[in-house]
Recover the amino acids of this structure.
């Protein structure tokens, strides 16, 4: 077999479709003659329909018809007959066979597709298949294919102890197994799915720079979530419905989970900012955590140092609400000046702006966690891509 064209690999239906040239040689003693008796004629050409020829089929045929190899055009195929009875024919075939495709590493996957050829019920005592020359599989004339590279090929023939099928298989019937290793070129999926999804994941970090009281914050992050869902649907429609989760699907799903995580945190932050319109201060432990986050990340506009006074005293002073001046108007951007109250630290806000501080601290925590996860995911997918480069055997 000389493999020529790889037409298609259907991952959804797990079908391998290609075109090859078949070279068959066999010996028929009935067709031998003495060249001296026929003007030293050594060769003779006859139509394939005029002589006996082996009827072979694909045992793993996926077309549903199990056609006899070469029967599609027997009126045209010529057979070259030698004086010693050796007959040789060659013709192109299109083989549509089943191929068990593993999508665990999609789109950086490699597949091994097989073509099983066997006679139609003729026992091996009469017709026995052999691999022939060049180990039976020639790959030097493979044409370029857009999505796949041909890596290698192997041939397995019937052994002396029996058939190549497990547990004996078809007893007494010879067979040949061709295996072709192919590897996918990931450029198409990298440019259409991986790269845009990565950009969307990086853009989701900018949501933390949009003010919580701005109506554009939620619409921005929800739009990014919808974009990721489109990529996820595209991946699901491309692959077969199996329990094995592909690498690209895991990457897109992880991006979707991050987006949902950011949406949830943004909703909480907006709710906390809306609570600033109420005259209820947050608990002391929340204010301490907010002050710590703002102080560590240096996003706070004020020097927020946690006081050392007992928590009970701070809680009592924090819940005191005076209608004549404890809570100032948020529109003016003023903060409570409670430095005159005994036992209070004016560095811990206790007015309506405390909820804004808590919301800012929550954004800092979510932004930090999201940044670490996103950077780690991008580094892992880049390392895995570079370590699984598809190499064409013709370029080795």
């Amino acid at each position: 077999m000389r493999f020529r064209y790889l037409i298609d690999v259907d991952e959804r239906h797990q079908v391998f479709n290609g075109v090859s040239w078949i070279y068959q040689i066999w010996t028929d003693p009935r067709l031998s003659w003495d060249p001296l008796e026929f003007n030293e004629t050594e060769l003779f050409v006859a139509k394939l329909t005029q002589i006996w020829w082996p009827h072979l089929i694909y045992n793993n045929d996926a077309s549903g018809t199990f056609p006899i190899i070469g029967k599609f055009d027997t009126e045209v195929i010529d057979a070259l007959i030698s004086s010693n009875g050796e007959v040789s024919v060659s013709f192109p075939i299109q083989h549509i066979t089943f191929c068990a495709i593993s999508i665990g590493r999609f789109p950086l996957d490699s597949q091994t597709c097989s073509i099983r050829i066997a006679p139609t019920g003729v026992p091996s005592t009469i017709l026995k298949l052999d691999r022939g020359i060049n180990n039976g599989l020639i790959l030097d004339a493979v044409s370029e294919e857009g999505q796949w590279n041909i890596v290698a090929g192997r041939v397995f023939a019937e052994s002396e102890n029996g058939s190549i099928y497990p547990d004996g298989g078809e007893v007494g019937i010879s067979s040949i197994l061709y295996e072709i290793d192919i590897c996918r070129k990931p450029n198409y999926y990298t440019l259409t799915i991986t790269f845009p999804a990565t950009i969307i994941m990086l853009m989701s970090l900018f949501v933390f720079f949009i003010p919580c009281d701005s109506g554009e914050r939620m619409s921005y992050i929800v739009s990014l979530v919808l974009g990721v869902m489109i990529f996820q649907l595209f991946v699901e429609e491309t692959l077969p419905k199996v329990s094995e989760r592909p690498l690209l699907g895991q990457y897109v799903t992880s991006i979707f989970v991050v987006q949902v995580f950011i949406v949830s945190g943004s909703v909480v932050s907006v709710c906390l900012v809306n609570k600033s319109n109420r005259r209820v201060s947050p608990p002391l432990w929340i204010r301490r955590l907010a002050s710590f986050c703002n102080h560590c990340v240096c996003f706070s506009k004020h020097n927020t140092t946690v006081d050392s006074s007992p928590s009970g005293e701070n809680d009592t002073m924090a819940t005191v609400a005076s209608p004549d001046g404890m809570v100032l108007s948020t529109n003016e951007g003023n903060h409570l000046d409670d430095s005159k109250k005994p036992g209070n630290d004016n560095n811990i806000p206790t007015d309506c702006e405390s909820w804004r501080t808590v919301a800012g601290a929550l954004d800092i925590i979510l932004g930090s966690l999201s940044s670490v996860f996103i950077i780690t995911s991008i580094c892992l997918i880049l390392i895995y891509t570079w370590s699984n480069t598809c190499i064409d055997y013709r370029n080795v």
